[in-house]
# Entry
Amino acid sequence: MGEPYDTYRWQFLNATTTMSTYWGRVYDECYDLYQALGAEGNPNSGGEAYQMSTHFNALRARWGAGSTTFPGRCLQMFDYFNDNIGGGDFDMDVLLTAMLDATPEQITKFMGITQAYKVAVWDAPFNEEFYAALARGFKVWGA
# Structure
């Protein structure tokens, strides 16, 4: 698809690689703590530090590269959506054609949704200046 998808994909890869690096650093620190506690004659605390290091190592493995990791599965999903969903340009002509070709059930559903939006904003504050300017912009159509 190209931009902006490629940029988002790269940013996701970069963030997950960074996260994997962080998990690796925490693993290294926990493992160093395990060794230091063992050398000081504190095997119980050392054992706990070792268990913590194995948990962080497992997190790093889950965030690493590969199609079975969490980021890998997310990328597969994003790529699938990018390649198989949507497609084509969307503009007012496409929308109007779709509305004209809609079935009565689709029109009923559309009207129900728009009316629900109308009810949801009925008591919301009304920006008179914005909508007056918007109306002035539409007035040029009748000129």
Remarks:
- The chain has a mean pLDDT of 83.
- The chain is about 75% helix and 0% strand.
